C-alpha cells in the first residue's frame, strides 16, 4: 500500500460541493488538515457543514469570492496565520461559463477572472509558504482544455490556458514548489445530474453519455480526490509541469458511437 505522510496543511478552493468537496474529504480522511473555501456562506453549504461536524479540529471553511484578488489574499493570510504553514494547494474553484465564442465582454471577463486569474493569484499568494514547506500545487482544469464542443467558449479557452500556467509555475518555481494539473472529464456530480434533468428524458441522456465512455461509466468525484492525494505525495515527486487527463477514455475516441 502506498505510504503517504499525514498531518499536512492543505488548501482546497471550491470545497463546498462536487469535486472540491470530495477532494477536501479525501485529505481529511487521510489525516490532513484542510482549509476550504467557496463562494457560498457556510449557512448555504450543507455538505461543508457536515465536514465541520465530522472534523471539527481539522476542517476550516471560509466564504471567498475568488474573482476578487483581495479575497484570495486575505484567505491565504488567515490560513497561514492559523496553522503556521501551507503544504499543499488544490486550486479547484471554477464553474462552467458556456456562452459561446460570441459572448459579451462581461461574460468573457468573468470567465477569465474565475477560471484563470484566480488560480494564478492563489498560487502567487501561497508561494512564500509553499517555498518554505517544499510544497505542491495541484491545478484542476478540464478535459475541455484539450478538445471541446460548440457553445463551450469562453470556458474552454481559460481551461486551456491553465495547462500553460501549470508549465510556467513548474519551470519558474521549481524545484522548491512542484506543480501538476488534473483535467477531469464527465464526473457524476449534482451539477451534471441537473444537466441530465434538463433533457426530456434524463435517463436516456445519461445512458447516451455513458455509452461515449470506453470504461462504461462516468467518473466519481472521489477518484479526483484520490488522484490529488497521490500527486501530492513523494511517490509522485517526478510528476511536474504536466496535466493528467482523467476522462474514462473519452478523449481517445475519434468518432462517437451511433
Automatic annotation (TrEMBL):
Origin species: Budvicia aquatica
GO MF annotations, alphabetized: 2-(R)-hydroxypropyl-CoM dehydrogenase activity
A Pfam family matched in the record: adh_short_C2
Keyword Oxidoreductase: yes
Source organism superkingdom: Bacteria
UniProt entry keywords in alphabetical sequence: Oxidoreductase
Protein name as catalogued: 2-(R)-hydroxypropyl-CoM dehydrogenase
EC number: 1.1.1.268
Family membership noted in the UniProt record: Belongs to the short-chain dehydrogenases/reductases (SDR) family.
Entry keyword annotation includes Metal-binding: no
